[in-house]
Structure formats: C-alpha cells, structure tokens
C-alpha cells in the first residue's frame, strides 16, 4: 500500500520543514535580543553610551557659555528666563554624565568652561574656542570661534535674534546626538536622559522660534 507510505513521508517533510523554520525564527529572535544596542540594562553600558556622555558634556558646557553672554545685554525677559532654565538643566545633566563616565572608568572630557576657569579668566568665549582648536568641530550644532565673535560684537538690536538663532541650531545638534543614543545606547538611565533632552529641547526650540522677531 504505497499511498500511506508516501503520505507519511510528506507529513514528515512538512514537520521537518516547520521545525527548521521554527528554529530559524527562534535563532533570529535570540540574536536580536543579544544585540547590546537593542537590549537595555540598568547596570551595563556600551560604546554608544560612552560616546553620548563624552560628547554631550562639552556640548552642554558650550550652551551654558552662550547663556553667560546674556549678562549685561538688553534682551526680552523671556529670553533671560529661558537662559536660566537652560543653564540649570544642562548643568545638572553634565554632573550626571560626568558621574557615569567616572563610574565606567572613562575619560571625562575637558570643556570650554574648564578653559575659562583655568588661567583664562576674562578671556572671551571666541578666544577660548580658538585656544581649544577644532576638537569639537565635528559635533552637530557646536558654535565656532567666529560664531561667538559675531555675538560678542553684535549690538543690542541684533544680539537677541542672533543668540536665539544660534541656540536653536545648538539645540538641534543636541537632538541629533540624543536620538542616536536612544537608538544605539544600552544603559537605560542614559537612554532615558536622552529622551528627556529630546523632550525639553524640542520645547525650548519652539519657545525660541516664537521669540525671534519676524
């Protein structure tokens, strides 16, 4: 009776094929789960987390230096309030990021504020940027020495809109860096901090766009 035998063989092949497909699916799922970039951890970190911390620290420090330039300028009170908000939030984030790097035994990067406070008191930000060279030129949204010089030399009538435009560009660079961390980071607190950066800086960009004179 050949028919039952043939049918049995077909069933066996179907079962075997289904088993292989199942194994491939499980293997694929396991491979995805093992990817450090997609597996979050409260204790483990990866290279993306380190890069996020080491780039965001000088990026935030530059934003705080930009806020310093508001002192003595005739600007809208709303701009002054925004500046203090930026200083407070980003100062706290720098402390958090620095603590993580120390915990991971990674280098905490030097910033332009470190230069300003180490033998360069009284130096203009444009001079500090020139002294630091091109170390941070590849970071998105970072101001150049010439950008700072244009702010320092601007009269009060032009200063506010120029400052807002440069801070918007600076924030957009931070968003790019934070989105990379959200996609590639492993350390859950760092990924969550990146999410906070995205939320707060998007909100601040909207505020600044409303403050720029039409």
From TrEMBL:
<dbReference type="InterPro" id="IPR012347">
    <property type="entry name" value="Ferritin-like"/>
</dbReference>
<dbReference type="Pfam" id="PF03713">
    <property type="entry name" value="DUF305"/>
</dbReference>
<feature type="domain" description="DUF305">
    <location>
        <begin position="49"/>
        <end position="211"/>
    </location>
</feature>
<feature type="compositionally biased region" description="Basic and acidic residues">
    <location>
        <begin position="113"/>
        <end position="123"/>
    </location>
</feature>
<protein>
    <submittedName>
        <fullName>DUF305 domain-containing protein</fullName>
    </submittedName>
</protein>
<keyword id="KW-0732">Signal</keyword>
<feature type="signal peptide">
    <location>
        <begin position="1"/>
        <end position="31"/>
    </location>
</feature>
<feature type="region of interest" description="Disordered">
    <location>
        <begin position="113"/>
        <end position="139"/>
    </location>
</feature>
<dbReference type="InterPro" id="IPR005183">
    <property type="entry name" value="DUF305_CopM-like"/>
</dbReference>
